[in-house]
Amino acid sequence: EPSGDAETFEAAGTGESSQVAPPPAPEDWSFSLPVTMDEAQFAVDTCQAGDLWACDTITHWVYGGTGTAAIAESCGGTASESGRNCSTDEPMTVGDSPFLDRLYEQCEAGDNRVCDVLYQSTPRGSEYEEFGDTCGGRGRTEFFCGEAETGAEAVWILNPPLIPTDGELALESCEAGDMYACDKLFLWVATGSDQEAIALDCGGHSERTEGSCAAEPPMQPGDSPFLDTIYQRCEAGDSRSCTVLNFHSPTDSEYEELGGSCAGRC
User: Fold this and answer.
1) Which letter, b or e, does each residue of 134-168 get, where b requires 16 or more Cβ atoms within 10 Å of its Cβ?
2) How far apart are CA 39 and CA 13, in angstroms?
3) Could you tell me the pLDDT band of residue 201, with boundaries at 50, 70 and 90?
4) 22-52 residue pLDDT tens
5) What is the pLDDT at residue 33?
6) What burial letters (b/e) apply to 187-225, b meaning 16+ CB within 10 Å?
7) Contacts of 131 (CB under 8 A, 6+ apart)
8) 14-51 b/e with 16+ CB inside 10 Å = b?
9) Could you say which DSSP state residue 253 is in?
10) Measured between alpha carbons, how far is residue 219 from residues 34, 94, 125, 148 in Å?
11) Which residues, in sequence order, are CB contacts of 222 under 8 Å at separation 6+?
């Protein structure tokens, strides 16, 4: 786990040091699966170790203005200016990027989900891209390599600003009896997964009516423990949770308004 202490880096060739805060996982990140926090943290580690392609990759995976974005924009602490690409030469062959090399090795070892990450994170026409595209040479049988697998990492189908933590909260809330959480869970999981079965069964508490577990949409705090938890995170200052609340609450509900106003802060 990253510490809460800031780290100091010396900008290459300048003799000047700059302080860059470590990434406060997972709130900084805006990626959607198949990328996971493991890849995200490794990208930070290799960026700070000098892999400039990893730094450029991070800029596509984080929200601007965050501590993690600052690490990427400073090229892991080696550049005094931000807002430009760190890597001047694209990594085209195995051995050019420690970050991509690890993804390559995991893909080669049979992790199809990582093959998808590798394919999406590499330069066009590179050996890395070709290897990821062929699912590590095993051949693609589905649109994504990872669709041929099952398991926790292949469960969630989430787009920014959603992260796996939101999916897990929906699952827990659904099983505890929050019918609106069951309806959201159904939209966020892979077809055929155990989590989809739980959502379809309304967490074992009810039967779906006209395709929905919730008889009526939750319109105000207190109506949905699931949305209440997201609201509490938003109210505590988590802007990402405010965006989730705004995007994933019923239209014209107090939840939606609270999320859109950043719990009254904006």
Assistant:
1) ebbeeebeeebbbbeeeeebbbbbbeebbbbbbbe
2) 30
3) very high
4) 444 456 676 655 677 778 889 999 999 999 9
5) 53
6) ebbbeebebbebbbbbbeeeebeeeebbeebbbeeebbb
7) 94, 104, 107, 108, 115, 118, 137
8) eeeebebbbbeebbbbbbebbbbeebbbbbbebbbeeb
9) -
10) 32, 53, 50, 39
11) 228
C-alpha–C-alpha distance, residues 258 and 265, integer Å: 10
Mean pLDDT of all residues in 146-150: 53
Whether the Cβ atoms of residue 245 and residue 227 lie closer than 8 Å to each other: yes
Amino acid letter, 77: G
Query: Token pair for residue 59?
Result: 């800029």
pTM for the full model? 0.52
Q: What is the bridge-based pairing of β-strands 7-10 and 17-20?
A: antiparallel
At 235, the pLDDT band (50, 70, 90 cuts) reads very high
Nearest by Cα to 111 from 14, 177, 38, 173: 38
Span 55-99, pLDDT tens digits: 999 888 887 778 888 888 899 887 655 446 898 889 999 999 999
What sign does the dihedral 208-209-211-217 (CA atoms) show? Answer: negative
- Please state, in angstroms and rounded to a whole number, the distance separating the CA atoms of residues 137 and 143: 15
Size (the chain), residues? 266
